[in-house]
């Protein structure tokens, strides 16, 4: 079904530069990515997922309390960490664009630092890598059913065709899927984008118009840890799971 694809991704980017205003007061004295769940920071939980997926280098953008996050990351053995510091916030799209020289010329993962998931039968990152089709895709999004994700907005983001193409609903109704904060993209997705601050949704809209925006539905447990209430709920949820995997790379 898929066309010729590059080898398995070895690079990834973590979006960790945000101010974390919705997470206050937990983020008053630290970046949101250093808040802990199940005894590990959110960013370490995410980086451990990347290690499991074979990622050897992860680029992390920093801004709010950048020194604190960068010092923390110095303690990791794997993956190799490269820092892309933003003196002014660049948005999700601008942040990735600034980091492109560190990410190579082949597809790479991008993930928000405040998402956490438990895999289904096949790990989500492996499913993304195996589904990638370089001939037809510029972006492949991990989506979560709106009715099941923890911390999903009320109305969702996308519809997903039977073939797997992603598109925005045009009827102002509830969308069945929300973006799960994880994607596999090709650098060409950011061709001809503006300098400075812009959001990744700008790139997705162009990809959708060209028929090159695709997605897969997550088949496990997923949570957006974006508010103190969500943090409490996720902590309670994670107490019921085996988190031995959090130790990778530490």
Record the SSE blueprint.
Blueprint: E1 11-15, E2 36-37, E3 40-41, H1 42-52, E4 57-62, H2 66-73, E5 80-85, H3 91-103, E6 108-112, E7 115-118, H4 124-131, E8 139-145, E9 159-160, E10 166-167, E11 177-185, H5 200-209, E12 213-217, E13 221-224, H6 228-238
Parallel strand pairs: 1-4, 1-6, 4-5, 8-12
Antiparallel strand pairs: 2-3, 6-11, 7-13, 8-11, 9-10
Helix pairs in contact: 3-5
In short, what is this structure?
It is globular, with a radius of gyration of 17 Å.
What does this protein look like?
- By secondary structure, the protein is an alpha/beta fold.
- It has a single domain, classed as Spore Coat Polysaccharide Biosynthesis Protein SpsA, Chain A (Alpha-Beta Complex), CATH 3.90.550.10.
- The chain contains six helices and 13 strands.
- The chain has a seven-stranded mixed sheet with strand order 5-4-1-6-11-8-12.
- Strand 9 and strand 10 form a beta hairpin.
- The chain is globular, with a radius of gyration of 17 Å.
């Amino acid at each position: 079904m898929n066309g010729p694809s590059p080898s398995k991704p070895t690079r990834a980017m973590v979006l960790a530069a945000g101010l974390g205003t919705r997470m206050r007061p937990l983020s008053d004295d630290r970046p949101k990515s250093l808040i802990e769940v199940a005894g590990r920071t959110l960013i370490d939980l995410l980086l451990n997922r990347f290690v499991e997926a074979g990622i050897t280098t992860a680029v992390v953008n920093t801004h709010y309390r950048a020194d604190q996050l960068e010092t923390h990351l110095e303690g990791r053995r794997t993956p190799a960490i490269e820092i892309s510091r933003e003196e002014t916030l660049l948005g999700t799209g601008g942040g990735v664009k600034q980091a492109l020289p560190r990410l190579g010329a082949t597809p790479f993962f991008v993930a928000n630092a405040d998402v956490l998931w438990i895999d289904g039968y096949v790990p989500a990152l492996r499913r993304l890598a195996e589904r990638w089709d370089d001939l037809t895709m510029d972006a492949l999004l991990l989506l979560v059913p709106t009715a099941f994700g923890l911390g999903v907005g009320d109305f969702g983001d996308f519809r997903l065709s039977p073939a797997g193409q992603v598109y925005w609903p045009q009827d102002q109704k509830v969308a069945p899927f929300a973006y799960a904060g994880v994607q596999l993209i090709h650098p060409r997705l950011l061709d001809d984008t503006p300098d400075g601050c812009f959001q990744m949704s700008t790139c997705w809209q162009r990809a959708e118009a060209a028929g090159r925006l695709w997605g897969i539905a997550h088949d496990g447990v997923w949570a957006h840890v974006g508010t103190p209430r969500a943090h409490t709920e996720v902590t309670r949820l994670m107490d019921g799971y085996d988190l031995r995997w959090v130790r990778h790379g530490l």
